[in-house]
Design goal:
Elements: H1 10-26, E1 33-34, E2 56-58, H2 61-70, H3 79-87, E3 95-97, H4 102-105, H5 112-117, H6 135-154, E4 158-159, E5 180-181, E6 188-189, H7 204-207, H8 213-230, E7 238-244, E8 249-254, E9 257-262, E10 269-276, E11 281-287, E12 307-308, E13 310-314, E14 317-325, E15 329-335
Parallel strand pairs: 1-2, 2-3, 3-4
Antiparallel strand pairs: 5-6, 7-8, 8-9, 9-15, 10-14, 11-12, 11-15, 13-14
């Protein structure tokens, strides 16, 4: 009754079906994305199946989950809780995953970067050799990268950025507002005097060589190019083989890739065994600990070797291999045949990304 009874606004649903049908008939390459908080079944199925007809729906629970998680101590972050929220979506209905959007960037809330680093962003975002840093900034930059990659890996079949948040924009957006009254309650709602001060994005921050925003921007670029190379977000194979609450480790398979996330604040793991579906040799193709991403180079494609898988059940996977997992890092391992640690030194290379040529599934 909640979704398909007469309590539903039938006219609205039929209107959306008609609009989606018309758009896809007139513009076959058009993509429509719906924002729905009710969890409407068949929202992203064709109208002739009884669906509403959208191509994607926003996975809105993820951003709220990150805000909830960041309010707790790092030791209390629940690996199962995070991965469940990421993957809690209907089969055959494509989703757009995102760590934050306009909701977190507008006045009244805080972006992920500001939740993680707060006022330290004003004084300690200098790049190495250009000024002071702080443990708060080191932690924030490390977790910012991890939050984005695990959201891209598990949050859906596509990924959304909101302008400036990908490089950790330090402040909110606030459009000019006058004092007004809530029409429903009559409560006074103060404005900002028509101020334009926060009605902008500071794109110059990620272009500044002397600031650390460039590291977050570089990692975001590498993530997107990794998907271009391997198409992992649209790959049908997705498996979370480990969500260890004690180790604070999550291991994910997406397409041909194996991703290892170590959220532990202090503990690094050597010869850490991770399960995988496919046998063969694996190599590191992306590490959040690369220097170009503001990392410490404890785990780098420049120094990491081959990881030869061996058979035998581990975490319910038929194969496994051993890795080094420094604290607060994420790493992506791909088939060795498509790894090249010197790829980013070539003319078309992407800084920090160790993928051979354009990758196996690159599409223009």
């Amino acid at each position: 009754d909640e979704y398909f009874g007469m309590n539903t606004d039938v006219d609205a649903v039929v209107y959306l079906q008609l609009v989606n049908n018309l758009l896809h008939d007139l513009f076959p390459n058009a993509i429509t994305i719906g924002e729905d908080v009710s969890g409407m079944p068949a929202f992203c199925r064709p109208w002739y199946e009884g669906g509403v007809g959208f191509d994607y729906r926003l996975n809105m629970a993820i951003a709220d989950k990150w805000i909830e998680v960041m309010k707790h101590s790092d030791y209390d972050w629940g690996m199962a809780d995070i991965t469940h929220t990421m993957t809690n979506r209907r089969y055959a209905e494509a989703c757009v995953g995102y760590a934050e959007s306009h909701d977190q960037a507008l006045v009244g809330d805080k972006t992920i970067a500001f939740w993680l680093m707060d006022k330290d962003m004003y004084d300690y975002m200098a790049a190495p050799g250009h000024g002071a840093s702080s443990p708060v900034i080191d932690r924030g930059i490390a977790l910012h990268k991890m939050i984005r990659l695990i959201t891209m890996a598990l949050g859906g079949e596509s990924y959304l950025n909101f302008m400036g948040n990908e490089f950790g924009h330090p402040e909110w957006i606030d459009f000019p507002r006058d004092d007004t009254y809530d029409p429903s309650t009559g409560a006074f709602v103060p404005g900002n005097g028509g101020s334009m001060e926060k009605c902008r994005r500071r794109w110059d921050l990620c272009d500044a060589e002397f600031l650390r925003y460039k590291f977050l921007a570089a990692f975001d670029r590498a993530m997107c190019h990794l998907d271009k190379a391997f198409g992992f977000m649209s790959a049908p194979h997705q498996w979370v083989s480990r969500k260890d609450e004690g180790d604070k480790v999550v291991v994910v398979e997406r397409g041909d890739l194996v991703m290892v996330f170590n959220f532990h604040p202090t503990t690094s793991y050597t010869d850490y065994r991770v399960g995988c579906n496919n046998a063969g040799n694996y190599k590191l193709v992306l590490s959040s600990d690369e220097e170009v991403f503001g990392g410490w180079r404890n785990l780098s494609k420049e120094t990491d070797g081959d990881h030869v898988s061996f058979g035998g059940d581990h975490d319910r996977r038929p194969n496994s291999f051993l890795v080094y997992a420094p604290s607060r890092t994420c790493a992506v391992y791909g088939p060795a045949d498509w790894a090249d640690p010197e790829a980013d030194r070539k003319p078309a290379g992407v800084p920090g990304l160790g993928v051979k040529e354009l990758g196996p599934y690159y599409e223009y």
